[in-house]
Request: fold
Amino acid sequence: MSLLEIENVTRRFGGLVAVDGVTTRVEAGELVGLIGPNGAGKTTLFNLISGFTPLSAGAVRFKGEPIQGLKPHRIAARGMSRTFQNLRVFPNMSVFDNVSVGAVGAMGQSAFAAVFGRRARADAISARTWEALERVGLGGVAEDLAANLSYGKRKYLEIARALAMKPELLILDEPAAGLNDSETADLARFIRSLNGEGLSIMLVEHDMNLVMGICSRVVVLASGRKIADAEPAAVRADPAVLEAYLGVDE
Amino acid sequence: MSEFVRGRLVPLLVLLVVFALVPYGLAKFGKGYFFQVAQLVLIYALLAVSLHLVTGAAGLLHLGHAAFYGVGAYVAALLGTEMKLGFLWGLPAAGLAAAALAFVVALPTMRLVSIYFAVATLAIGQMIHTVLLNWVAVTKGPNGVMLFSGITLFGTPVKSPIAIYFLVAGLVALSIWVLHRLSHSYYGNALRSLREDDQCADAMGVDTVRLKIEVFTVSAFFAGIAGALWAYTTGYVSPGDFGFNTSILVLAMIVVGGLGSLPGAIIGAALLILLPEVLRGVGDLRNVMVGIVMFVSILFLPRGLLGEVSALSLVRRGFGLKWGAAPSDREVGWR
Reply:
């Protein structure tokens, strides 16, 4: 049983078929890249997996159980957390509070517990928040307002917030967008080290080099269809992929 | 030392003023009028803090808060006059009735977003106000309800103005403490995440719809409590006190005080209740003056007196919710 199984997933927007019968999987501990030209349906596929967009057809199973049709927070609670393509940190909250939302989302704190609760739960939430903050190296700016962080640090903040949920599968939507080369290289190392700790990761990326450099398997989408699903070297040599990216040689 | 000053001294001073200085002044110089003003400040502080939870923290623009205040006041007054049920029954009944109504109303409206939610709450506020005004058989319509029985605790009538003041101040302080715990906790952080980006909060595992319904209901409960306190202290409720104007007044309080800030809501309430009283000297111009103060404060302090950030760090330190520099330090985050 794979951690995540995507079976014949399809999404139509009116006449447009954004994702067309895609079947793939993520094994536990794997680092899978999802690439494709603009408009290939990468982000739509992520939204279908994480419950933000309902499926038109097909099935998604997580840890063997079907998750299509579940609300995003229910899917998140099962151990899948995601980041967004356009940075979506909570700007008017501190860095610590941002990350704590991930922890409280996963662990829960009822209104009653917030008022009368013992300290144990709150301490556990804050410990988990610190752990995630330290993991991404933002412990020193915990008290700063998220809006005041640099663009690069906000990327890590978003990842920390997802890590605070202690997910089994982390879905990263274009984490390197807007970063320069050295920042991208740092991020690549970081993603790899997360994977090295046993976290399964699925990564959408525009940046071919990043994906080819760190992923163990690469899925290529073009016009909503899967055109390749193999190791980086094989994908790089695949004529269908070259055609999708570079066009046909006349 | 400064940790101590901000951490324990400020709240202590506030409690000292509310429970010692003000009552002392009232007992010494107070006529009935001053007692009324002091109680009005307390009641509106509770209203503003309960709205803070929905609008300031969770970011839902609520334009009908006064209606739940009114429901609480009417339930307390009608239970007293029609069923001879006293304070100890009327007070919780008022809160629960307002909360129950809010819960029913919240089920459909919480699926609306931003401005549509605001319009829905505006409509609900107007509907409840219209019912209070026109359901003459029950609410006595525009004449309002006179509640002569006053407050009786365990068979003992609470008659002296100073005792009533202490009772109101105690209940308001207790209610605000509960709202403070909700607002300044990880639960409160989840609420703030709704304000910032509720779709993103959803992806973090936060059940956004449920949380919104919960917070709307809790807020209405305390608005109902405030309404009951108003009914018992003034002895008279009429629909005019619970209209759109009151909703906007409470909203203005939390905006002037600083959206998202609980201490700000209290300061805003005190300011907008006391200012018109202080300005009585200038006669008819006083409402214009109040308007100018609000206008200027929005113009120069768009984040209010205590914006979210400064307010948050104030509360964090102010209530012993310390930050630790290192993860090894266990004294971090909310308690």
